[in-house]
Amino acid sequence: MREGSNVNKTCSLFLMLALSVGSLFAGDSPAQRKAPELAFTLPGVGPKLLSQFRGKVVAIEFIMTTCPHCQAAAKVMTKFQHDYGSRGFQAIDLAINVLANNTSAESASEQVSAFANTYGAEFPVGFLPQEQMMSFMGFSIMDRMVVPQMVLIDKKGFVRYQTPATSGPEWEKQMSETTMREHIEELLSQGGAAATRGSKGARLAASPKGQ
Q1: Measured between alpha carbons, how far is 41 from 47 in angstroms, rounded to an integer?
Q2: Does residue 60 have a pLDDT over 50?
Q3: What element of type H or E holds 37?
Q4: Rounded to whole angstroms, how far apart are CA atoms 125 and 114?
Q5: How many domains does the chain contain in total?
Q6: Residue 117 is part of which domain span?
Q7: Is-contact 159 32, C-beta < 8 A?
Q8: How much is the pLDDT for 143?
């Protein structure tokens, strides 16, 4: 009987640990990890690093220039930049499709510049290879990824919210402009230290449409 009791206790402890670990990845907990370095190119500027924006709340939106939902999202990002830029917010769009098929950097720059001009993006719009974005986001090549993908990084360089790779109820629930504003306001209000406790909001989700 004592041995069985010990087994039951062990199983109970394991279950509690599993539930605790699992909750870190549940929809009601924001992502929290140190953002890897990310290199990208801005037309007319050249190479840039994510670390150069340290000290700001950074919203990076990974897009495809041909995606209608990415085009619409660029207009929302411009509103965010207008509303929060003076408080230390930085919006960045990065196209992941313009280097496909061995396209030259010059041609990629032209495509990105045309996107920014056409859709009124009043913030930096650059580009990088898709595989670089997948690594940054922690996505697998097996994921059926949708675009746009959004990641919010706090003033200390920690990823606090990011979209899941695939679509689902969380996408529709969390992609509203209101929700994104709540997350941005939250991160702007912090004094620079990465949070150690999860906030009430679910992980930020972006529009699941467009590929």
Answers
A1: 4
A2: yes
A3: none
A4: 10
A5: 2
A6: 31-189
A7: yes
A8: 84
